[in-house]
Amino acid sequence: MMIADGIEDEEKWLAEGIAGIQHNAFYLHRAVESNNLREALKYSAQLLSELRTSRLSPHKYYELYMRAFDELRRLEMFFKDEDRHGCSVVDLYELVQHAGNVLPRLYLLCTVGSVYIKSKEAPAKDVLKDLVEMCRSVQHPIRGLFLRSYLAQISRDKLPDIGSEYEGDGDTVMDAVDFVLQNFTEMNKLWVRMQHQGPIRVKEKLDKERSKLRDLVGKNLHVLSQVEGVDLEIYKDTVLPRVLEQVVNCKDELAQYYLMDCIIQVFPDEYHLQTLETLLGAFPQLQPAVDIKTVLSQLMDRLSNYAASSAEVLPEFLQVEAFAKLSNAIGKVIEAQVEMPVVGAISLYVSLLTFALRVHSDRLDYVDQVLGACVKKLSGSPKLEDNKATKQVVALLTAPLEKYNDIDTALTLSNYPRVMDHLDAGTNKIMAMVLIQSIMKYNTCVSTAEKVDVLFELIKGLIKDIDGTLADELDEEDFKEEQNSVARLVHMLYNDDPEEMLQIICTVRKHIMAGGPKRLPFTVPPLVFSALKLVRRLQGLDGEVAGEEVPATPRKIFQLLNQIIEALSNVPSPELALRLYLQCAEAANDCDLEPVAYEFFTQAFVLYEEEVADSKAQVTSIHLIIGTLQRMNAFGVENRDTLTHKATGYSAKLLKKPDQCRAVYACSHLFWVDDQDGIKDGERVLLCLKRSLRIANAAQQMANVTRGTGGPVTLFVEILNKYLYFFEKGNPQITSAAIQGLIELIKTEMQSDTATPDPASDAFFACTLRYIEFQKQKGGAMGEKYDSIRI
């Protein structure tokens, strides 16, 4: 309620003040129009007396001040026209000093002073010095600040600068600098004192009001930066030391933050670079609550942009040792501000790293130094749990990747993994994904075992459970995406040297084997295929070479692969392990390593017998075994017979009759391989086909018994197609009579009362008959063979 009353009172006081100004302004205008100087001075002094109030807040006082300011502009125009009031500017300057109250007197004095300088009847430096000294007599914070703001406003275009019309004899630039600095110093003192203008309970409100007035003070620094005569030497010797002295001594958080920011924003980057040591020396002396990290970050950003603007300025950075000075300053600031949160310190290091990457991109030692400093800061605290700090660490780790577009660079930084160790498990994974995405985006090849080891240490959050986080607790989709990323990464590891490539494979194996049963099905296959790729490169190089180091040989790699896949089969993931064993068997066959290929097949059959229980998985597995075995040419008669016998045996034991039938007729291809001499056993082909026909017949009868209708004739048509295949390939056991009999059997089955209509089977059979007809009409040797078949 009290606050509401206070606001109402303030509005009332402001209204009274404005009314007073308007009332006196009316008579002032009348006096000016009638060229009555005495009356004009009288009413202007009364008008300005309204600014003597101390009951208004800064915000409301500003409104009142702007009303008075508008009237002073008009009055100045009147003072300029000596013909109208008939009084010389020198006399006028004396005359206004007789005003009764000090505040109106000084406003009038500043207004006449502006005219006095323009008249050039006295040196600008003398008038300005006189005015800035006399303004000391108003020490009320708000009234004094606005008075000095008015002085700054009327004098900014009248400074005795080089090339200015008000430039006098001697070193007048220093007079201009002294005037602005003196006014700045006094304004800052008044601004700082403003915080003590009310009870402590309204301090927050006062600080907000003060903050709105900051530009009145900062305007002086802007004016200084515009003074032509302020070169690097004057800035270095006079301007910066005096401004920093005022900033440090005022001991006010709001003022220190704003003024440091102001210095950085208004003065040229070149000046900052050349006075870096002086500027940075002030930071540790600031109040602990000042947001130094933001100001320092802005300074580094400006210097970075300056460096990027032209290659010619880079030697200057090296000359002044900018990085070393910035690094040293940040260390001192962090040391001085014990209460600075971790996020503040890390954000400083992010800015320093950005500076190093942009200005000294060739200096990896600088990058590592920043990361090392970050590790030192983080080592005193437990794992990061602050989201903002975590984001800053991620920004720190991402910056080198984005700059160099090359993971190799990050892997050479000794402190990179040490920073990652301070991330929590979730963020560690995010960062690991960023690393992998960087490799994929820029198609980076990691080519040494040592670098692979460092890389997999960096992404360990993806390849094993850390900090007690189990894979089961993760979202299924996220988990799959993470593991697929690791799988893709394995294919980016490559070296032309077989020895080094084998070392890379061994290194990856060491890391991924710790991944647990849920991860291995994702990470083992790419590793196996990477090793098989190496085997293909080494094809034909076998046998041990004398010497201390045993070179990479296919046999050695196959031993490693056996161990890797064995771990996968223990997960258990038998179907995947079986597929990989068959891939290895095929590769061993191409290397002409019969015992190795036989061992892989044995492992595949063992898995099939003991682990593959699902009927659909059995069907898929047996077809994979048959298909792979058909392509084998390294086996002797005995080994091949053993394996084909096993395959045909398992085919006939599948659960469903149609699956049995298809697997058995697929086995016929094991006894007739077109591109190899010797494996053309027509009798066993016929045996397989006849056996599949019996099974198809049994399936038809079973359907008749259980459903009362026969099943579709698809199986018979499929077997007919196998007969035709081997008939064309010249198998003497497959005769046209046998094919004729099979066609008749299918037609009979289709016309049977119990037959189930099936358009797909009918179309399949019709296409097969059309093919036979086509071959007959084609003529030639094949046409003659088909000629005896009647359809």
From TrEMBL:
It holds the Pfam family Vps35. The gene is LOC140004095. It is a peripheral membrane protein. It is found in: Membrane. It comes from the Eukaryota. This is Vacuolar protein sorting-associated protein 35. Keywords: Membrane, Protein transport, Transport. InterPro entries: ARM-type_fold, Vps35, Vps35_C. Plays a role in vesicular protein sorting. Belongs to the VPS35 family.
